[in-house]
Amino acid sequence: MSAAPFSRLDPFDCKNGDFEYYLEQFDQFLAINSVADDESKKVPLFIASIGQDAYKILKESCGQADPKGKTFEELRALLLEYFARREFYQRNQRQGEYTGAFINEVKRLSLKCNFGPFQKEALRDRIACGRLEPDDKDDKTSMAPQQTTHPKQQQQRQQQQQQNQPRKPKNPQSAPPQLLAELQTVAIPDGSAKGAKKKQPQQNQPNQRKCKICGHLHVESECPHMGASCFMCRKKGHIASVCREKIIKGQSWSFYEPPQPRKRNIFVMEPAWY
What we know:
The structure is a single chain. The protein is mainly α and 274 residues long. The chain contains ten helices and no strands. The radius of gyration is 51 Å and the shape is rod-shaped. The termini are far apart. It comes from Culex pipiens (House mosquito). Residues 129-176 are annotated as: Disordered. This is (northern house mosquito) hypothetical protein.
């Protein structure tokens, strides 16, 4: 009676496995089971061990022929050539890899593919499609470490950039809103500036009185200075132009001083009596 065979091998991983290493394991499996010299059992054991994915590839490589009708060496050569060509066409230049090393690796892989007279064309196409950089110089520059600047140097550069930037003019609207409101309400006296036109007195419109907050003719509830505080007495409810304490104390609150008339010397010529 013959000894019971050992358990079968795991199926081959077509995505991440190396078929050459798998064949070495399969040879040891045949030797353990004393089938290394029996050619009639090698093909069935090989087909049963490689798995469904690898058997599908093997059947497509055989074409119309039946894989069972071929020898073990023929099936082995078909799968070796298939996986070698797949590795060859999937080989691209890695990031940071020198172009010379990439070309040597592609040449080494092409020796297992059995391209025959088309080996030069296959090498040319693979190198042209798989390269990242045009030459070795660009690879060296891309692999060179980037120079880092010291934090103090970065601060100095930022300060220089801020100093070189043009300064923006101050916005006149940045003044306090209360001061702007009082400036708008102050009236310039007649004849104070050249070309100033005299304002015609406004006729009192019906249902309008002088506002106690700003002194203009409108309803107090619609006054734009509602809630403003006075610069004279620091109280809310009116502005400095209508402040009563200013009138009582006799203080003058004006942002504009009218020009004083010039003093002129008038000479009167008396008639001569002869």
